[in-house]
Design goal:
- Strand 5 (116-117) and strand 6 form a beta hairpin.
- This protein starts with 8 loop residues before the first strand and ends with a strand.
- It is globular.
- The chain has helices at residues 21-31, 36-47, 76-95; strands spanning 9-17, 53-54, 72-73, 103-112, 116-117, 125-126, 129-137.
- Strands 1-7-4 form a 3-stranded antiparallel β-sheet, with helices on one face. Strands 2-3 form a two-stranded antiparallel sheet.
- By secondary structure, it is an alpha+beta fold.
- The longest helix is centred in the middle third of the chain and has 20 residues, at 76-95.
- Helices cover 31% and strands 26% of the residues.
Length: 138
Amino acid sequence: MTYQTESHQAKAKQENMPVSWKDCTEIGRFIKGDEVEKAERKLEMVQKEELAVPYTKFDSDAGHRKGSSDSGGYPVKAAEHVQKILQNAKGNAEHEGLNTDNLVVQEFITNQGREFRTPSRHPGSVKRAHVKIIVGEK
């Protein structure tokens, strides 16, 4: 399924990122609707473990975090990857001639990627996620 962007939108996507798609989904709920600058600041604070991402959908085993009244976590690795995609979307918007001061995260789409089994003495699985971010002017 392909998403068409309008003239006032720009998108960026990354497939098969080595992060949990559940963490990416919660980050998406956390930054959707925010301005791009604010979303980048939030992701930096998550990477420094100063701000917890509230878990709303996948919170069955998540504990409460300091400074938050709800269950949450610090998905540092996922925040790093999402921040790179957000910067790519911002660059794409600048390339298309959009005003980068008024950009808002309009859509944040996550899908499960392929799960790889590691062939070793202690086998495990590596989870993957697909993420697409669409930003647009206010």
